[in-house]
Specification:
Elements (H helix, E strand, L loop, with lengths): L3 H29 L5 H10 L8 H10 L16 H6 L6 H32 L18 H20 L7 H23 L6
Length: 199
């Protein structure tokens, strides 16, 4: 038979255990997310009545008394869990976003410039004697064979760039390569314009 004093003692013990567990869970959650939003964790601890919101030292002492590591000793939240990294993302930096957009625009312009210079080089070479044996047709002139090879080489340069277009860190490198090749083929096109078509 269970007496009323025993029930009262059990009830008091359960209430104490629930309060203690709740406090520890609150402290653990706030310490985990402290690296993301430190002011929010301080307000949450202050709301639970464990420490004043304006006292960082009080927060550290409360965490230490409950055997919870302070925020700066915990592992960073980002990268520890794919789920957390998807739910909690850092705010994008407006300056870096603006710089990335400019770099992407320059890269796209470099691709267009490279394609134009390649086409101009091929157009100014058609029907003229070709010094490069790889591009030379059977009659010794630049024709369909040379145009096909030049188109293939342009595709070899541009297709990987399109495939890796989502890698922002590569856009500037791609742009440098494209502008360098644009200058080379533009120089060839200017040279070809000075050569007359053989009769």
């Amino acid at each position: 038979m269970v007496f009323k004093p025993q029930l009262a003692a059990a009830s008091v013990f359960m209430n104490f255990l629930i309060r203690k567990t709740s406090a520890i869970l609150v402290l653990a959650c706030t310490s985990i997310f402290a690296s993301v939003a430190a002011p929010a964790s301080t307000e949450l601890i202050a709301g639970s009545g464990l420490a004043p919101a304006s006292s960082d030292a009080g927060v550290a002492e409360t965490l230490a008394s409950h055997a919870v590591a302070p925020p700066n000793r915990l592992r960073p939240v980002f990268g520890t869990s794919p789920l957390i990294s998807k739910v909690i993302q850092p705010e994008p930096d407006p300056k870096s976003e603006k710089k990335a957009r400019k770099t992407r625009l320059v890269w796209r312009a470099s691709m267009a410039a490279f394609a134009t210079a390649t086409a101009l080089d091929a157009a100014t070479s058609v029907g003229k004697y070709e010094s490069n044996p790889l591009l030379r047709s059977a009659d010794g002139k630049f024709g369909m064979k040379g145009m096909a090879i030049k188109g293939g080489l342009a595709g070899v340069v541009l297709v990987p760039q399109i495939a890796f277009r989502n890698h922002r860190e590569l856009h500037s490198k791609f742009a440098i390569i494209n502008f360098a090749e644009t200058a080379f083929f533009a120089g060839l096109a200017i040279h070809n314009m000075g050569i007359s078509v053989p009769r």
